[in-house]
Amino acid sequence: PPAASAPTYTPIAAAGDVIDTLKASGQFTTLLKATDATNLTGFLKARPNITLFAPNDAAFAALPPGEVARLVSPAGRPELQKLLLYHMINAKVPVAEFKGAVRNAPTMAQIPVELDGGDQLQVNDAPILQGDVMATNGIVHVIGKVLSPDHPPAPQAEAAPAPAK
Fold it and tell me: pTM above the 0.90 mark?
């Protein structure tokens, strides 16, 4: 069972395109403020087949104090844009494509994310709170942690064991 301190999550429903879906839910105000600050709102509305890993407001609230304000400030916007692009895949990637497997997927920041379709669906180290919200122009996967393009997933340890010294 989840820890008592875990923020409650209310499932969302698709409501038009990915941006309208986020707006309708009311749980993504920080993400929407960030897409507005980086001029990515129109970009997201215009993409025909996008997968968006959408950190909810609780995920942004878990960042260090002042981090969101720094990112949305004019000086932080190039970094914020890279961070947001790291949450987007330029293709529809439903949960079925990685269920029961671990695979990497290229993001629009040109840095891959690791999709883990095990018992707890995850992207990198972020839990997928709700997968497969089917918007008119793509898929929203709601995640409980903001992904960091500066800390991409480490290669899987079991893939290549280190030689014994």
Answer: no
